Queue: 3 jobs
Job 1
Amino acid sequence: MNRYRQSIIFFGGVIPFIILGVLLGSVLYGRSKLHATKEVKEAAFEKYQAAAGAVSYVEEELQIEGRAEQMAYWEDQLKG
């Protein structure tokens, strides 16, 4: 194989495949990292939604006439 053909094979075939392999590996790594971050954020959002639902339930209960005063009374009794 002469030098001309060898350099064409090297620069036209080998190096592009190496570059494509590195790019593919980095894309897969980044994708897996993004997927893990997404799962963590979705879990935190679900916890937030559950807490917001509980808060809205408590707020509804406290808006019933006399409930806020009862809660304040019992909190004072428990503290004192």
Job 2
Amino acid sequence: MTSMPVLQVSDLSLTYQIRQGEVKAVQGVGFELARGQSLGLVGESGCGKSSVANCLMGLLPDNARVTGGRVLLGGEDILSLSEEDLRKYRWRRIAMVFQAAMNVLDPVYRVGQQIIEAIEAHGMETTDSKARQRVADLFRKVGLDPQLMDRYPHEFSGGMRQRAVIAMALSCEPDVIIADEPTTALDVIVQDRILREFKSIQMENDMAVIYISHDIAVVAEVTDLVAVMYAGHIVESGSTADVLTAPLHPYTAALMSSFPSAPSGRNNNAARRYELMLNDDRVSQAMPELAGGTGPIIEVEGLIKRFPVSKNLFRKPTGFIHAVDDVSLTLARGESLGVVGESGCGKTTIGKLLVKLLDPDEGRIRVRFPASSNVDGTEMREFRRHAQMIFQDPYESMNPRRTIYDIVSEPLAVQKIGSVMDRVERVSETLTSVGLTPAADFLFRHPHELSGGQRQRVAIARALVIRPRFVVADEPTSMLDVSSRTGIMLLMQQLARDLGIAYLYVTHDLAVARYMCDRIAVMYLGKVVELAETEELLRNPLHPYTKALLSAVPVPDPGHRREPPNIRGDLTLTVNPPDRCRFL
């Protein structure tokens, strides 16, 4: 590591022009980064982290304007470069792992070919065969089977797409990599593998890395320096050990205190908890405690879902991915059931089956809303009123042409609930409850005008505005900072108590699962390998895969060092799997 900075940011300020006026997104931000160093940029959603990253990449939107400062990369001011010169810099000198992987990958091109084009465009390889071999090596490094190179983005799970984007960022061996929430969509085991490999590649190539993250535990494990952002300003910076061990600014201390952890259990602290709680009079009558033995509202028995792989000359599938394989579950009113496991194990598929976005190949799903267990025809509308889903990628699930009010009020309009004024009031209350305040500032914005975390809150608001009985929450807090995350989890727990909402909580974050869930089901390659009460499962895990998951959970302690988790299974076994245990 050399002392000469490869990247210098001095007094950077930028604004956005929106309908309501000018927003000062970044104000006077400055830091330096030498080769081999890593900086963690942390803070809550909307604080300006991603705006700084987009400015460094020269990817600011048309309504953004840099009002001051300099950005020197290798001594050259990026802000003064033409668009043509910036294209030469991107990927070769400075690259970025974007937060929303699906928005980076072109849906009509094969994933491997997109990375090959980046490699060849910057002269990293002279022939297509060498470039293809380079991509195959990169796929292995990030935990993807090279056979997946010829698949399209929609054929990848959320975590698999994120790994592909990481491979793309590494493809041209840049001087600086900006990792904007690089492991948000990844389970803890793949996250552990990616971060270790990322660190190894960084040291091998003497690269500088900026980690933009709301996950303090990840920042504690992989960075040398940390800068805490709040409302566009850096409020505290220094070595990671100093800042996280003995924070000086009250906001940094609040972030640390609100971090949920798997080992320590539930923690009701939130840096901004008071903004995220429902008013006491929001519900006129609280639901009484459920009596023991209350029957389930959802019963799943022998559920199977397969997806065909490639097709042969006669258009017959050559194999099947066993996404969900003989899964049985029950869910009671007001209960939260966590489904955890690594990317591609079938968690999201189960959620989509339960809200009838997919049909099972075999097995039965019984529901107690409406009364009939066979939901079709006219009953489907009633079912949709009671069953909602919070999607993993909020941007992908929103119409970019519609306003936030249109998006959140859509379930109310479809179900013909209330007058227009009633809907405006209900939407405003729900936006406030998920931390989008003042609500009036968000009603008529569009999704692209919000940060990733703000879009995630909109997705949560859309699912909760109709007050459903059952919600599939697919990574609902993965893009939120820790202060907002705790408040959102408190809100969801309160709604479960007050309205009797049952949650199927799909997550790779065991700390969040411990905080939110009454029971946890651990999935591996389409199978539920362990199911137990939350505290019992986390204190006394029986299956070796559950133990591996727990060993991979990072903790917000810069001095803590973990051994790599011991994983023996093979992810490729989801295609035509053997009858034996797939983990062994």
Job 3
Amino acid sequence: SLPPEPPQNTPQVRPIDPATGEPKKKKTRRGSRGGKKKREQEATSKSAPQTDKTEVSLR
């Protein structure tokens, strides 16, 4: 009992994630969780090399 909507029902199109603005197919599995965390860590390490030294010292 669903309306005829092939573009939204197709698994290739899928709804877009408003949080990331990308398809929920791959962004949900890798981007939403790993991508966001990895990007933040990389940006911190590259943007602030001092943070890396502080973390190593604390560890």
